[in-house]
What we know:
Layout: H1 2-26, E1 33-39, E2 44-52, E3 57-61, E4 67-71, E5 75-81, E6 88-99, E7 102-112, E8 117-122, H2 124-127, E9 147-152, E10 158-161, H3 165-171, H4 176-186, H5 193-205, H6 209-212
Antiparallel strand pairs: 1-2, 1-5, 2-3, 3-4, 5-6, 6-7, 7-8, 8-9, 9-10
Amino acid sequence: MNHFLKFTTFSTVLLLLVLPATLEAQQWSRFWKPGQLILLDGDTLTGELRYDIVNDAVQIRLEDDRIHSYSGKKLLTFSIEEHPRRAVRRFYSLPYQVRGNYQAQRLFEVLYEGKLTLLCRPYMEHLVDVAYEEEEESGKKKQDPVYEYYFLQADGSVHLYRPRLGRLLSIMSSRHREIRSYMQDYHLRYDQMRDLVRITAYYNALPAAADREKNFQPE
Length: 219
């Protein structure tokens, strides 16, 4: 009996420790946003959306309150409208090499789109440690997750970007001198989202920059 009680107590404590982390991760799918999604067959659906970044899935609630779920394999793209700023966030479902030669569809948010496109995803291991709270109309600031950044090339390949200056200049090697000077002139960092967007936009604006770019190798 004593052994049973000890085991039961241990199990209860373990559950209480694990449960909050699980609930925090699930909050990503908790809030509905007005938006639109385009399926692989070309159909366009409009309604309220929420996405599960961990499982690469999206749900849409239509006007008749029916809810449909779609995995990344059935999606091309979707967009959601943020409140209260009404900013539109866009996502693509893209094949990504997860290990060896195996590719899986992953959801990526578009930060800047061009011949070289900057993408991001929340850092999975960090999700369980961050309480992601909805931003309220009162202006209460939410606690943002940590992001991983990716670059989408013109050939459709997606590569993880581990924030290092040398890596960024390698990705933009055809214009690395201009990029380095631009970063120095405006005091831009290679590991900050807003700065990466500015750097990527500048790179794409340079004459024929992406056309001359060679394919870079994943790390």
